[in-house]
Amino acid sequence: MNIELTSVEARVIGCLIEKQVTTPDQYPLSLNALTNACNQKTNREPVMELTETQVQAALDALMKKYLVSDRSAGYGGRVTKYQQRFCNTEFGSLKFSPQELGIIDVLLLRGAQTPGELRTRTNRFGDFADTAEVESVLKTLMSREDGPFVARLPRSPGERESRYLHLFSGMVESAPEPEATPAGAPTHAVPATHDLAERVGRLEQQVADLQEQIRRLEENS
User: Fold this and answer.
1) What is the pLDDT of residues 54-89, one digit of tens each?
2) Do 146 and 107 share a structural domain?
3) Residue 164's CATH number
4) Exposed (0-12), middle (13-18) or buried (19+): which is 87, by Cβ within 10 Å?
5) N or C: which end of the chain has fewer CB within 10 A?
C-alpha cells in the first residue's frame, strides 16, 4: 500500500465515502456540501473548522493522486461536484467489503477506535453480529496482502479494549495481541461503560441523520 494522506485529505476522503453510502441521492458532493460534511460536529474526531479554500486545496492534491475526480456535466447544473476514486471503483484495485469499508471510513473520520465503538458506528455500512466479528474483520485488514490497512495500538492502562488506527496517514507497527485472561482469574467487567458507549453512538448517529435531513431540506427550499 502506497497511499499516504494528510489529516485534511483523510477527512475529505472519509466524508465522500460516507455520503456516497448514506445519502447516494446527494452524491457526488459540491465544494460547499463537502466542506459542511468535513466540519460536522457529530461523527467527527477531531471536529474541524475548515474553509472552502482548505478543502479545495485538499481536493486538488487528491486529484493529483487520482483519488478524487471532479464532475461538472451530467448532474443538472454548473456546480462542480466531487466523487472519490479511493476504493471500490473501476479506477483502482483497492476493494473493500461493506464491513471493511465501514471500519476504514469510521477510522478516517474519527481516528483510533475500539472494536465496540466500531460495531456501533458502522451500522450504516454493514451489520456485525458481535464485537468478535469486528475483531475478525480488523485482523483481515491487518493481514491482507495488499495492506496492511489497520494497526492495533498498545492498550492503555485500565482500558477494556485495544484501539485500532488506519494506516493511510503513515505506517504504525501493530502492538502484540493482548494475552487472554487465564481461566479462573478475576475479571473486572464494565458493562455499564460499554452500554453507555453504544447508546451514545446511537444518539450521535440519530443527530447526524437529522442534521443531514435539515441540510437537504434547506438546499431544496
Assistant:
1) 999 999 999 999 999 998 655 556 799 999 999 999
2) yes
3) 1.10.10.10
4) buried
5) C
